[in-house]
Write the structure tokens for this entry.
Amino acid sequence: MSRRKGGRSQSRFDHQREDDLVPAAEAAELLGVKRATLYTYVSRGLIRCVPEPGTKENRYVRADLERLKARHDARAGHAAVASGALRWGEPVIDSSVSRVGGVDLIYRGHSAVTLAVEGRAFEDVAELLWSGTLPSEPVKWPAPELAFPPSELTRLLPKGTPPVAALSALVPLLGARDPVRFAAPPEGEKARARRLLRQLAAWVCVASAPGRVARALKEDTVAASLATAWDTDVKRATEFLNQALVLLADHELNASTFTARVTASSGADLYACVSAALAALSGPKHGGACDRVEALLAEVGKPERAQEVVYERLRRGESVPGFGHRLYPDGDPRTPPIMEAAQSVRPEAQGVRVGRAVLEVMRDAGHPPPSVDLALVMLAEALGLPPGSAATMFAVGRAAGWVAHVLEQREQGHLLRPRARYVEPALSPNPGRSGG
């Protein structure tokens, strides 16, 4: 679909996140060119733009700007190309764990979407990511023992601690209680990983309901542990949680996974790698995006306010979280199964209705399809889960991928240590003189 504006063809901005669109002045500055040159790049199809609602201005796709800048910088030598590779650029690490394609996500040669919709257990998919082989029969991970009474950790956590923050406190404690955590032969490390993932799922409720941790740990699967920990009585909750975990299990070199690999390359133990990954995941531009979507739906409140809130955000130049993904120009393939599950469970749930209304407003305004973050929040709302549970599903599911990349990095054996290109610091103004 294309639009006409000012005599030139303008494509929709292909599913970029709203906070990846920049105004003309910033776009020209990023490229180091005048606005006239920027407009020339647009007319040649090198940069995409989208109309700013309620104005005559356009906003420009940052990914296109950075790609064009990297191409120009390449003339300066390899350093500029390497620098650009760290910002959604060219691949920098060889990996066999997963592949992000334009229309699908592939785990070791298997479609993640197919694995999810066919009902393959999260544990089976984790084993696939770790070994390269999909189990021919369903696997069962043994339930680990409680490392210590959950109430001891609860006493240390402030009231209202989000589940991901609670898990971030838990993992180092589990590591400290594992005397052989630095002994890491592959099979022993996989056994450690199975215990750790089971613990993560069972302890998600420790800040609010420590009494449920032991019961959750006794469940047969990671998804069932989550359902018990969150005390959801929604029919098929375990099935839909399992599906979400499978779709989230890995996603190439996202920020948390890259962090886990860097940590693993230093020789750190598995708990340290997962702790580092959880820290990266907590950022608002990564796993914390789910929390931003939760805040958006809370701000909207009811479906009738969706257009008002969305348009006001856009008018102020603010982002609308939960839409678009740079790596999927035709939409994130993980989103539809999760969103369909949410709407099949409890379409009447307020959060589901509000999410659907926001989606319709964004779609009608020509914006990108929803991301997996919006789908996860809608599923959490449908299942009646507590705040922060969408980001927690993300964390527990992605932990399988973190382990896979830790194992792969250890096999490769080298330290990840990029170099910095030194630039002279800008001169700061004289603190002793006022500015008129």
User: Anything to note?
Assistant: The longest helix spans residues 389-412.
